Amino acid sequence: MQVIMPKPQIFVERTLALIKPDVVDKEEEIEDLILRSGFLIVQKRKLQLSPEQCSNFYADQYGKLFFPNLTAYMSSGPLVAMVLARHCAVSYWKELLGPANSVRARRTHPHSLRAIYGTDDLRNALHGSLSISSAEREIRFMFPEVILEPVPAGQRARDYLNLYVKPTLLAGLTALCKEKPADPMTWLADWLIEHNPNKPRLQHQTTEEEHQ
């Protein structure tokens, strides 16, 4: 009887989540809901933004009538910024948030986070990135020390494999065919560890005392 093993989960997508100033006191409760919804909280910090920083963060909303009220609201107190990770993190987080207008959310998505914790269109409790590209920008804004490495795809992925993986793997498979070990997978794994071209090289310096 064939046993079907579940595919391993790899958290390749990240999004930014903000717990806004008026619901910071619900931080633990909201985090629990996030974790139970299948997200991993990769990073978290509590901070308070100045009106100027809020203007920079919401630069794409500049010029709209609600913009001054938005920056005043977001700078009115501390907020919690989180980097969330899971498969399709951006779309799943937007779905969990519900509509931006909390009044509408209570009518159409009563179990969404904005329906539960939000007040109105402006004070809607939580923020989520709209796309993968905006998530990258917003994560860099809130966590400037974070290094985001995009997952290569298409020709970039092929170029990466051809340059960094295939030469060493081909050499290992050639050596494997010559050796023909009883446990080929373990042998190949050991060979790759031993012949990893990026393995740190230790330089042993001989002092005068060692010669004496």
From TrEMBL:
InterPro entries per UniProt: Dpy-30_motif (IPR007858), NDK-like_dom (IPR034907), NDK-like_dom_sf (IPR036850), NDK_H5 (IPR012410), Nucleoside_diP_kinase (IPR001564)
Encoding gene, per UniProt annotation: Nme5
Coiled-coil positions: none
Subunit structure: Component of the axonemal radial spoke complex 1 (RS1), at least composed of spoke head proteins RSPH1, RSPH3, RSPH9 and the cilia-specific component RSPH4A or sperm-specific component RSPH6A, spoke stalk proteins RSPH14, DNAJB13, DYDC1, ROPN1L and NME5, and the anchor protein IQUB. Interacts with IQUB.
Cellular component aspect of the GO annotation: cilium
Family as reported in the entry's similarity comment: Belongs to the NDK family.
Annotated Nucleoside diphosphate kinase-like domain residues: 12-150
Keywords: Cell projection, Cilium, Cytoplasm, Cytoskeleton, Developmental protein, Differentiation, Flagellum, Hydrolase, Kinase, Spermatogenesis, Transferase
Gene3D superfamilies referenced in this protein's UniProt entry, alphabetically: cAMP-dependent protein kinase regulatory subunit, dimerization-anchoring domain, Nucleoside diphosphate kinase-like domain
Protein name: Nucleoside diphosphate kinase homolog 5
Pfam families: Dpy-30 (PF05186), NDK (PF00334)
PANTHER family in the cross-refs: NUCLEOSIDE DIPHOSPHATE KINASE, NUCLEOSIDE DIPHOSPHATE KINASE HOMOLOG 5
Organism: Psophia crepitans
Transmembrane segments: none
